[in-house]
Design brief:
The complex is a heterotrimer of chains A (about 300), B (about 280) and C (about 100). Chain A has about 300 residues and is an alpha/beta fold. Chain A has 11 helices and 7 strands. Chain A has a 7-stranded mixed beta sheet with strand order 1-2-3-4-5-6-7, sandwiched between helices. The longest helix of chain C has 16 residues, at about 80-95. Classes of the chains: A alpha/beta (about 300), B alpha/beta (about 280), C alpha/beta (about 100). Chains in contact: A-B, A-C.
Amino acid sequence: MNTDAASRVAARRDYRRFLARHSFIEMPARERARAILDPGSFRELLGPFDRIKSPWLPLQGIVAQADDGVVLARGTLSGEPALVAAIESAYQGGSMGEVSGAKIAGALELACRDCEQGRPVLPVLLLETGGVRLQEANLGLAAIAEIHAAIVALRRHVPVVGVIAGMVGCFGGMSLAAALCSHLLVTRQARLGMNGPEVIEQEAGIVELDAADRALIWSLIGGEQRRAVGLADDLLEDDAEAIAAAVRGAFARGMPALERSAQVEHYLERLATIDPQQPLDGKMLRALWNEGTAP
Amino acid sequence: MSAEPSLSQRGRVWFEALTGDAGAIASGLRSVCVADADLGGQPARFIAVVPDAQNRFPRARTGEVGIDEGWALAFHVRHAIAADRDAARRPIIAVVDVTSQAYGRREELLGIHLACAAAADAYASARLAGHPVISLLVGKAMSGAFLAHGYQANRIIALDSPEVMVHAMGKQAAARVTRRSVAELEMLGETFAPMAYDIRSFAKLGLLYKLISGIDADAPERTDVERVRAELCRAIADTRAGTHGLASRLTSPAARESRVASIEVRRRLAEQWDAA
Amino acid sequence: MEKIQLDYPALHTVRRRAHVGVVGSGDLEVLLEPSPDSEAHVQVNTSVEGFGAAWKNVLDRFFARFQGAVSIEINDFGATPGTVMLRLEQAAEAARS
């Protein structure tokens, strides 16, 4: 076959593959959770018909969603008992309130209890959130602390796998939850940062950060950048099947030898090479912290 | 445009009052104070994050938890865990007066979210290893900084003082983000305890072990310090009699009134957890 | 925030429940369940006040074609009538299949 024909065949194959993709980003939380679990195994906990809603939002004139923006589902991953907590970013920016936070923390606590009793549960967090819901402020913050505690406890038994797909990304106190995950999977469209770009611009000025400069933002905290400097583990296409496969692959890798959030010596060494007086951009950091093709 | 500089010295004041001249450890950072000092007849590790006007990161000079601070906290807590692996687990006391996490481009690029997670991880791991971890709130305990330094404690004690506050975002920033005035936010806080900034409202949420009144928070007398030491010891004893987790934040009398939905969610989840 | 309640006669029972939608800006969620009695009941919670007539209009049109004895809860964040009708039809379809 000559090269023209070969390249046409390759182009057709790529196009079919492209058409066959299912965008994970476009899926609402419930669909995302269903897409991750083994087909037919999805069983929702505290779903909309249980109507455990925010006690606080209606008092402030905000309509409460029946599941408070978090979908919890039990099911299996390659036949093994699993739990998926999926945050719905279309509702209040995926923010953590009393109920949404308690759903995640409570589910992780039960998973931990099961692990301690010899019944491992594989936990997956689909993180699409701006952080604390300001209308519930201190109850949201407290719940996030409980989520952190639950992840650290659970990590002793099983890997905790996090996925950030976009377009909201993972910010605020929940960015710490992402950093606590044993394996963190991201797409190119994802962003992971502690303070939202708008808040940094607001607090530190537009010279510090222009939140409207999308290319700049992704170059600092986007999925590809985070993967390239070792702050995320897998960079994935926006495709539900690929992400579901990558989640299984992450569990198959088992517990890391040392969790990223426990790699104190490593990061102290890395930070010693940084001079905050010198300019530093995403590209320069990749050169300093290049992960190569690990793991 | 930037937040009012908060150069509260309360963290340092209370750190020094509680540790005296004993056992200061060179933390490598002017912004992180570490000392092993006596508490009720046993050694305890005290840790504070304090303002450092010469911080090598310009956006972490007024008491914020920045990149360096997050990893330093993790280092010193883990050092205590490792040192006590085959010995008595010393209490770890987080002296808390932190304005916020550091807000900056460099911080985001370098992964401040991971630095803060490392600190939270270390404190949580210390708890799970059997160290009583107690937080003493002497000033601000805000958002990501508090998640990193203090919120993983077994028990949280606070001074009943107007400058002691816990919240997810500073008033000015929260006002700008929600497009309300600070006065409107404060009014919302009066109606809804979770939105309030002051420590007395926070105490109603059931997350505090003890609110200590009648103390001079800025210039404590010797009797003030002794009272706080006694409360720390009580918190340690209470921790040793309990579990390693954070369940006391759901079982306190105040929590049973203010965190009803948090408790109900867990109860219903447990019911539904196993398939019928 | 406004709450609107409406009732409609029903001709047949509905055995299944269905949920569609998200309470995002310009959107709504619909919870549809079998009614406890032989009528259809609708409870609307909406962030936008003053559109009672528009809600009645949409629901009248929906129930002109759909005569199941259902309890419907709508949590709305400023959806257009077209979006409301779409979600209602999605919920009705999901309850049928």
